[in-house]
Amino acid sequence: MDIPVQIAVRLKPPSLEDSTQCIFSNPVTQIVITESGQTFHVNRALPVDCTQVYLFSSFMIPQINCFLDGCDTSVVVFGQSKTGKTYTLFGSGFECIHSECDQGIVPRFLTEIFHKLNQMPEREFILHITWMQVVNNNIFDVLGAGLVRCCNVEEAFQYLQMGWRQRCQGNNHTVFTVSMEQKWVGSNGILNHRMSTASFCDLAAYPEPGLFVLENIIKELLAGNPPKHINYDQCILTAMLRDSFGGRAFTWVIGCISTEPEDYQDTLKILNLCLCCRGIKNFVTVNLFADNNTPVYTEKSVLQPADNNFNIQFATAQWIKLVSNAEGLFNKILQSKSLSDADINQVSEWLFLKAECDECLSGDVGTDNKEIGPKQGLPRIAEDTEPSELSESDAESDSEEDSHSETVFQDKLEKYMEYFREKNDQLFADRCEEYLNHIDSDDITISEISGSQSLPTLTSQSNSGRRRTIQPGESLSGAELELLRKVAAKAISPESQKIIIESHKKDLDPEPKLIERELLKMIDSPKTDDICKKYRVTKEKYTQKQILARKLSKEISSSQSQLKELINLCIAKERLIHDLSRGVCHNSVNKQYSEKVENSVIDYDMVKEIRRHETNLKTYKKQIEQIKRQIRKDEKRKNTLDVEIVKDKLKLDELSETSTDVKDRKTNSIKHFTHRITQLDSILKEKTNDLESLELSKEKELMLRKEIKNLRKTRECLHDQRCSLGHKRKIYKSLSDSEERKLLECEEAIEAIDTAIEYKNNLICGKSPSASLSDSQDNRDSRSRGEQMLMARLDKLSHDEMKTLLYRYFQKVVDLRGACAALEAGAAAAAEEAAAWRTRAAAAWRHAQRARPHAHTRHFQSIHKYVDSGNTERALSLGMTTDSETSDDAMRLVDRMKQLARCPPPPVIPSQNLRQLMPATNMPVAKVTKEKNKLVIIQQQQQNKRH
Ligand SMILES: Nc1ncnc2c1ncn2[C@@H]1O[C@H](COP(=O)(O)OP(=O)(O)OP(=O)(O)O)[C@@H](O)[C@H]1O
């Protein structure tokens, strides 16, 4: 099985506590990160304070189990000088003064191996150690005795102590090897014979030449797809590490690195080399001996064939029971729907094979078999059922013995029944628990399955077990494959296992993974886009590979069932041939000569028949070979696909992790920026408002100034008009009515324009126009209710309405002024007339003085006095009382007075009073002048008041 080289990175603790660290590791995410942010994904990122125990337990247990199961293992330590390579592999030393806690991987490995072997007394083992050093491409045996046999841990430690003392110090490579041969008979009666080697290599630091050669080989291996021939014999080191890189060992590479900034470049080099190793795939297999898996019978069983026969029959019966139990259990598990697709396939296949077995056992195999007899037994152990026929013949020869053996048989039957029932129940309970644990946590330790007891059950679970019957020792058994699969699963790190489970789960779940959805939804950015793209491409590949793997599984299982059919046919044929041959022999040996002649024709036919069957058998065997080759090819392809799927899954996970990181960082920065933007936005809004108001006020000011300018122009025009009209009136002493009105309009308009200019000036100066225009509290208080209502109404008028109203008032004012002027003129004429009359009255008086007595004089004097003072009523009343002899002039005077009394002089309306018609009666009057480019505003309200 292809298992990638596994990588662990160990950081050497900084020499000083407060010294700066330029490399960090995250044991949770298994990432080593440099100060520049460069990340290295490894299988184990060990913490800087990682103890020797932690290091050992974090990845060496699966290696030990693998080694015990017959696989080669390897630990290779890379690193610059003084980074703890030797410390990691061996510890600080093996003298009494050295603490056990400091023991490195090698002593712990030896301790654990001997401990486990002690727990498995059924295993015979021979364990050897070697300790070699490569100094300048020369090999140097540290122990001086080549392979050294160790029977127990104490012996091993003695050699360790010795080697530690004898080893060469300096920059050289050290290779420590433990090789072990094991033999044991499994509870299934199968002899297991395995050989495994564990090598531990403490590599020299750069620039040792062998290291460069190794580096090149690693790169060659990495680039070689399909694998090309690698020349390992370039130097001693690479020859020794042949199995560790691109070979058959289950390899862990440990990168020992320094965290000191001055070693940064060297550290990066080591990390990159480690990462290169990660891409190498080793083909790990169980090293089986050529004589493995052949049934082994104990002495007793050889001596008592009848008992053995019985045992086999009984075992067959129990086996059938066991298989039925398993069937029930599998059906239950299938119904629970908690299995992945691959598991469902496996279980379905198992059930299918079971059904086939049932058919076979019920005697419906074929006509050939039927001819032979009813006792078929299981196809795989068909030859073992032969002794049953023997027992028949024995029965004929010795019937007495039979009756005795029947009682013994009954006793034994009961004993074995009890024993098998117990065993069966226990086995199933164990398997069931293991299986459920596997479903729950996917965390079966290899040690659980590596024991000899677990093998039969695993064989029963695996269809590949059939291959053993076909070609013993040539390929791996189902149990072994299962074991390797689990070793591979263990070796891939718990994270990868999770991924596999996830991927299985996902197959059942049509909903895409959350992270995937999230990833696809991610915010657009070049980096995220790239990740998304990569993720999609990898995902597509991954899905295709999964489909292909499933297809291959199906193909394999159909080939296997085909194979099974053919094997059954072969067995049947062999039996037939065997029986026919026996028949021929029997004829030729036992019969008389005459009978022989009689039967020679029959024999001839039988021989022909045998030949025919033999030809058929050959064809079947050829087909079997072909199918086997095909299966092997498919399985290899599937294994490669499986590894690729796991790799893709890892890649997908990495990508999703990266994208999550990017996304998190992005979200954080987006949050930060959003906050900042909100802040800036509010500031901007404030500033914009200020600016707007400033701009507005500037614009407004400009507008106002423009308006004032225009108003002034209009005022000038009006003023000109007024002047010309006034001039005309001066010249011609009077004006036409329309001209008079025009003059008044001009004057009023000029006054209105002045007010408007004053108003706009107020606005420019920043005085609230409303303050000047709107009614102040005083005004409001002083107003009558009617006025207040009127003001309220005016406030609600629209612009146009206000314009119309103002225009009307303007016309009214002009009208009033016109009327006023007319009245003034009338009054002036009347005054003139009164003066004329007074002159005439005086003349008349003088005339009367001369003609009348003094009494009248006083009377007329008082009349005149009242007329002069304007008290016409009084003058009139006096006039009434005048004598009848009063002159005609006096009478005319009286008439005129009466006329004047009926038309009193019109009241003079000062023009400024017209302003009171406007709502703002106390509008401030400001005089705006320019003085050295500054506006000087003189408040004139007081003056107005005085007016
Ligand atoms: N993780 C660690 N914890 C405690 N001590 C350590 C650690 N790593 C290394 N040391 C100590 O650092 C020193 C150097 O370690 P070691 O000799 O193992 O380095 P090295 O890489 O094998 O060096 P060289 O290449 O020269 O053989 C030793 O004294 C060892 O005890």
UniProtKB/TrEMBL annotation:
Domain Kinesin motor per the UniProt entry, residue ranges: 4-280
Coiled coil region boundaries: 610-644
Regions of compositional bias (Acidic residues) in chain numbering: 384-401
Ligand binding (ATP): 79-86
ATP-binding listed as a keyword: yes
Recorded family membership: Belongs to the TRAFAC class myosin-kinesin ATPase superfamily. Kinesin family.
Name of the protein in its database record: Kinesin-like protein costa
